[in-house]
Amino acid sequence: MKEKKAKIKFLNRFNAIIVIMLIIFICIISRLIYLQVFKYDDYTDKANTQARRFLPEKAPRGKIYDSSGNILADNKTVYNLTFTTTDDSSKYFYDTMKKVFKLLDDRKDEQQDNFNLKIDNNGKPYFDFSGNSDDTKKAQEIRFKRDRGLNDVAKRNIPELKNKQELTDGDEDKINQELLKINAEDTFNYLLKFYTMYDILNPTAKEKQNYKQYYTNKEIADVLLKKYSIKDLRRFMIVKDAIKMQSYSGFKPVTIAYNIQKDSSYIFYQKLSDLPGIDISVEPMRTYPYATNYNLASGVIGYVSSIDSSKKDRYEEKGYDLSTDLIGKAGIESAFESVLKGNTGGTTVKVNSQGRKTEELFKNESSPGENVHLTINKNIQYSVEQTLKDRLNYVATQYVDLQDNKKSNFNATRGAAIVLEAKTGRVLALASYPGYDANIISDPNELTPEISKQYFSPDYDKLGQEFINKHHLNKTVDDLFPKDKSGVRQDKYDLLPKPFYNYATMGLIPPGSTFKPLTSLAGLQEGVIDSGTRVNDANGPYTNKLLGTQQFHDDGVHGTSVDIKKALAVSCNFFYYETGMRLYEKNGGNITALDSLAKYAWQLGMGNDPNSKTKGSTGIEIGESFGQTYNYQYNKDQTLMYGRFDLVNALEAGNYEGRSFVQLDIGNKDDDSDELKATKQKFKDYIFDYLKNNNSSSLTGVNQFIKGLDPLLDQLQKDSKVFSDRVKKYNESGKKYSNANVRAAIEQFIYNENALINTPAQLVLASIGQGVNNFSIVQVANYIATIVNGGTRYKVHLVDKITDSTGAVVQEFKPEVLNKIDISPTNLSLIKQGMEMANTDDLGTASSVFKNFPIPTGGKTGTATYNEQIQDQIGRSAYGVYISCAPINDPEIVVAVVMYDGAHGFLGADVAKAAYETYFKDRLQKDYPNYQPTFSYTFNSPVPDKKEDTVNK
């Protein structure tokens, strides 16, 4: 009995508590041993990782120099305000940012703002994506939303995809379309919740849980907007978003303010202890010494800007940091991005809870990019740009065309020019007007939303109406700037100037009479004309039995005895019509003979053989369009392509060349049934397949073709309610519908289109530089250089060499021959004499500019219509084109100029003269001391030198 009582006493409550406590302590000690011993390495690595930060050290881009060592693109040191994410900086984020924003505002420094979700003056969010096309902007918008998780929202809005795990490409396309439906305001409200911005209200744990689980995006926005303005909320959102986007590439600081004032950086340094996570970094910024005051060579140099989110994957693979790195977006900056880009270095450091560096772990040295030395001479470049600008302004505001009795209301706002070394292909000047200030584009603080919109998203509604009013046009904005399927207005007729469009390399223009030296060369080399050839340009329009009833008019009467030299001097169309026809007859008078001019043009770089597998190019390093000369296959393809639009317009208008008929319904419409779409397509294919298969100036089987239209028209009436209703209305008016009138109109259309394709009419037009001929001004200059240098076509190039940071030459670019053509010295002499007469003879088309210039020059003017039928109605006029070379006996340089809507070619001759005065300055001052320059800036350039002693000359 006693033993039992003792046992009960041992198992009392006190002892039980002791046992439980022992067990708890054993568990705690075991856990500590596990964490401190067995998991020591894992948690040490984790703690070190969270305490580590990589502080990037950006490498300066390589510099860009002109041919004399003047710096066209440089770097300067800037101070940036950064934020590093740590426990403390996250905890006090909003308090810190409020202090930061106040300091920035007080100092008038700008917060960095690359965020594509903007707020307008009415407090409404909107997207601001830059790009040359609506598709580009859509791609950027999709990427923007996907990067921020909105694709999950879009997926939940699509019932069939809501619970689907594995998505096909088609599913992703559906999600993308749904993403585009999410407007800017909904996106903004979504991000307020996505970035838990209700934390700014210091909510309790329960309130925070409610915001997270029960409040909608709109409800959270309403709560926040009661205390903060939408613009203030966006300022916090910009930083939150930058942190999120930066997190994809590791623990690195984000930039809050770029290029703050130096004094501001000192103030922030003094207050760092009160601003957890905030620091000052120093890095190089791209700068363009001649951009702000002169916009010098902006089309050549280009600019740098942030990486589009739509190109994220491509650049991440190359090692770019999308959140901070800038890339070349145009010109040399873009073409030589891999050369100019330096190798970014940086330091890996340990930081404390406030984000301050406590220890430097290791460092990777950065290395600057390599330097690009251009062939451009800044003084010649300035002379050309300034004169081009002045001449365009003169044509737009003062010039009166006495011949057409047209006053100074020309839309002369765009143009381009090139100065090319005739025997090397080196570009001494390349101008595109208007240009732009690359310093504004490359500095986030300068590129305000207003400037960005002006440059990248112009208001065509406003600008279009201003254009209509200025030029007194009987048109609407919808006529001149129609909306595409997405509702975005397009500059259909290229009416407004585009600063970022390089008119020199990308613009394709009809050369007009500047093509005549090429026609002269072909005619002389083929022997169909020579020095003794005379034509009679005094008897009205040009006709030829092989042209049937087609006639071609001349701009003036040039006499009964026009030889090749006079033809070039006075720009006699009649002479070149005849030359074109003689080439056609000499080479067989068939389809092959229609390429009589083309085979010479191709050798001179004016287009290339459509059957060739090589891509046409002048060789210039920056982006270019390469235009095509008239040839049979190209002309046929173009005629058939554009003929479809002409046919649809004519048949839907119910009138073609005076033939009236019931309006057809053959244009494609989104709401057409599948049957109707097929009927319309079959109808159009029937017509154009006939044209495509007819390879003769005469129409074979035309009667059978016309009969075949009846069943197609009947089927169209059956399937198209629009057309059948029109027929019904026509019959109700007391008339009787018949297919006959429509057939007659289509038959006339067929004859007209076939004449464009299979007769020498287009060859005749091409002989004077009209028709389908379209080239860049670079092509035009290079073809003239090829002729006047004796037949060697050089690759056009802008870059002389590449050097490293020490000045050592890494790569050198020598003149490169692309082709040679054997030109008879006699023939070359005739062409040069004619071009010299154009500049010096009393009747020469450019003699008013060059007659008294002491250095002998040659030239050729060209006035090429934009569209003779509609140009006056839409505010367009002829392209003014001018080409020249000097000295004419042994040409060193060639100049080519185009002024869009420039009225006449001779008006651009002053641009060439300014180039000559600058290029030949020393020679003119030495050999012709009494010569007074026409332009004050050609002998005394106002553009200062900006050189470095270390630059290799």
From TrEMBL:
All residue ranges annotated as the Penicillin-binding protein transpeptidase domain in the record: 415-618, 765-913
Record carries keyword Signal: no
Localization of this protein: Cell membrane; Membrane
Membrane topology field: Single-pass membrane protein
Keywords, ordered alphabetically: Cell membrane, Cell shape, Cell wall biogenesis/degradation, Membrane, Peptidoglycan synthesis, Transmembrane, Transmembrane helix
Molecular function terms from GO: penicillin binding; peptidoglycan L,D-transpeptidase activity
Bilayer-spanning residue ranges: 12-34
One GO BP: peptidoglycan biosynthetic process
Family note: Belongs to the transpeptidase family.
This protein's GO CC annotations: plasma membrane
Protein name: Peptidoglycan D,D-transpeptidase MrdA
Matching SUPFAM superfamilies: beta-lactamase/transpeptidase-like, Penicillin binding protein dimerisation domain
UniProt keyword DNA repair present: no
Residues annotated as domain Penicillin-binding protein dimerisation: 57-360
